[in-house]
Amino acid sequence: MDDDNEPASAAPYAVAIKRASLHHHVVDKLREMISRGDLPAGERLNEVALAQAIGVSRTPMREAVKLLASEGLLELLPGRGARVRQFSAKELLDVFDVLGALERHAIEVAVSRMTPKALSEIERLHNQMLDAYKKRSQKAYFKSNQKLHALIVELSGNPALSNAHITLTKQSVHNRHETLLSDQRWQESVAEHQAIFDAIVEGDAIRAGVLMLDHSRRTGAAVVDAARSANELRMGVEQARKTRPA
Fold first, then answer.
1. Is 158 exposed, middle or buried (0-12, 13-18, 19+ CB in 10 A)?
2. I need a surface site. Which of 81, 93, 117, 189 has the fewest CB within 10 A?
3. Domain ranges in the chain?
4. What distances in angstroms separate CA 134 from CA 25, 152, 161, 185, one per listed residue?
5. Would you tell me which CATH number, out of the four given (3.30.930.10, 1.10.10.10, 3.30.390.10, 1.10.3210.10), belongs to the domain 3-84?
6. CA angle 103, 109, 113 (to 5 degrees)
7. Contact of 154 with 87, CB cutoff 8 Å
């Protein structure tokens, strides 16, 4: 059928699909900027400038801000726009505590029902992480790390667990970009993942669960330390600017 003969009723659907695609694009860009630290915790959003930078109008930008606020990444300020949420140390530790519990249960279930195909995919992502570490690429390491954790949760076959994990991961991810700047923590993370992978290969669900919980808690503690250091650095820079002679 020629495009000219396409039913007129199809036009609204095409517009809706295009609008949804644009919405997801803006949300993904903002989430990426928060994750990378381009929009640090506590920073107020300049929606006009961000809309221009991304190349969209104010409407999809406002919709994206509302969605990220509902996810806990942003805070809406009555009459003053929004800012990137600043998590307290306790809030971050609480998030990773729950993440650890979820991932412990997920890996115990996943190991107990592991298939050769699933194990092969886990091994592939694990090797990607090791390769990124050898190449000193934190970005690639973090990307493979996220995929591996998500896969393990998915292999639990529990949609409710997966949804809760996705929500909490979104709340923690914008603080993690600073964590891997520590070579010591990076090395520790690699060792922890190797131990977890070995337990998976050996089919030891209980040991894999214990190791995963410990890994999550250690990561949480490292994120808190890194967030504190980054915040102290920003405060120092801001104080220096204030005291600098005109």
1. middle
2. 117
3. 3-84, 89-236
4. 32, 23, 33, 15
5. 1.10.10.10
6. 140
7. no
pTM: predicted TM-score of the whole model, two decimal places: 0.73
Q: Which residue's structure tokens are 């991810």?
A: 173
**DSSP for the chain, written as a single string:** --GGGS-TTHHHHHHHHHHHHHHHHHHHHHHHHHHHTSS-TTPBP-HHHHHHHHT--HHHHHHHHHHHHHTTSEEEETTTEEEE----HHHHHHHHHHHHHHHHHHHHHHHHT--HHHHHHHHHHHHHHHHHHHTT-HHHHHHHHHHHHHHHHHTTT-HHHHHHHHHHHHHHHHHHTTGGG-HHHHHHHHHHHHHHHHHHHHT-HHHHHHHHHHHHHHHHHHHHHHHHHHHHHHHHHHHHHHHS--
What pLDDT score does 239 carry? 45
pLDDT in tens, 38-59: 888 788 999 999 999 999 988 8
- Residues with Cβ within 8 Å of 139's Cβ and at least 6 positions away in sequence, in order, are none
Q: Which CATH superfamily is domain 89-236 in?
A: GntR ligand-binding domain-like (1.20.120.530)
